[in-house]
Design brief:
The protein is an alpha/beta fold and about 325 residues long. Helix content is about 45%, strand content about 20%. The strands form 2 sheets. The protein has a 6-stranded mixed β-sheet, with helices on both faces.
Length: about 325
């Protein structure tokens, strides 16, 4: 062998050895994952039901992983701030997102420039659904959804509905309900549930769809009246209140979900390890009871195919509402 060919083969051998060493190092790192705390980025402020959901989940996952899962709250812009941050994080399994209908389904359809794509993520599981309830105030002479529809049709131009902001799932659910009931009502957005519910109790607005966990205290206090539930089943906390589907609009289903996602390029072995930790945390009876006490519905584990189908069904449902009402937000909206 000539010196030139000998040198060439030596280089090949060195390169091959280096490549195997790198692959071996990567496999070793994945096998030992995690070697440090994992971060769960939550797009909501501390203290609310969603934050509590995240912290309970993080605790359960930490027990399974053998390292702490630390919650980092990054609220704002209809969940965009947190979601963009996680989409740009290293795909190493150490940064997770508390994902939701808003972050992975609605925002990419609502915003002209959202800053990420749903394909940037792998959804590991849907942890809980947040039931929504249709409420009115005591001054409105309606005790059922049908009675409210009849009332609204006699009040041309005088019925308003409250929401917690443009493009929010509660806004879209109400537009969906208006179409189903064939009624007119003007949209009055507020900065959060407290001012929105205050306007409803004062009769400045006459209708609102809100998370059950937020509306229930006012319903129990007699300040608001629950007309219907927007999901597929009645609530344990409001067993006498029917669903929209069983009363006024067959097939109607508008509910929100929360789950865990991570950057889609994360190695499969690491993602699978985290998915198992999510499922084990979800199965903890104490965690499930805690969710139910906050009017959140614990969800069963789903296969990756079932998760994709669930998200696609959501896109079809909400996309129809967005197109019909021409709801578009600019990149500063929300």
């Amino acid at each position: 062998m000539t010196p030139t060919r000998r040198h060439f083969h030596t280089l090949l051998a060195v390169a091959a050895g280096t490549g195997l060493a790198l692959l071996g190092g990567a496999a070793h790192a994945q096998a030992k994952f995690p070697e440090k705390p994992v971060k769960l980025v939550v797009p909501y402020p501390p203290g609310g039901a969603t934050d509590i959901l995240a912290r309970g989940l993080a605790e359960g996952m930490g027990k399974e992983l053998g390292h702490a899962v630390i919650v980092e709250n990054r609220p704002g812009a209809n969940t965009k701030i947190a979601t963009v941050a996680v989409s740009r994080a290293p795909a190493d399994g150490y940064t997770l997102l508390l994902a939701s209908s808003a972050s992975l389904v609605l925002n990419p359809m609502l915003y002209r420039q959202v800053g990420y794509a749903p394909s940037d993520f792998r959804l590991l599981g849907i942890v809980a659904e947040a039931p929504l309830v249709v409420v009115t105030n005591a001054q409105v002479p309606a005790r059922t959804l049908q009675e409210f529809a009849a009332y609204a049709k006699t009040q041309a131009g005088r019925v308003n509905y409250a929401s917690v902001g443009l493009g929010n799932p509660l806004h879209l659910a109400t537009e969906m309900l208006k179409s189903a009931l064939q009624i007119e009502a003007a949209h009055i957005p507020y900065q959060g549930s407290v001012p929105a519910l205050t306007s409803l109790m004062a009769n400045d607005t006459q209708l609102m769809i809100d998370a059950a966990s937020t509306a229930l205290p006012q319903v129990r206090a007699g300040k608001l009246r629950a007309l219907a539930v927007t999901g597929g089943a009645r609530l344990k906390d409001l067993p006498e209140v029917p669903t929209v589907a069983e009363t006024a609009a067959p097939g109607f289903n508008a509910s929100l979900w929360f789950g865990v996602a991570l950057p889609g390029a994360t190695p499969a072995a690491v993602a699978d390890r985290l998915q198992l930790a999510v499922r084990n945390a979800m199965a903890d009876p104490q965690y499930r009871t805690m969710l139910e006490q906050r009017s959140l519905l614990p969800q069963p584990p789903r296969s990756d195919a079932d998760l994709r189908q669930h998200v696609e069904r959501d896109r079809a449902t909400w996309g129809k509402v967005i197109r019909e009402h021409n709801i578009v937000l600019d990149d500063t909206g929300g």
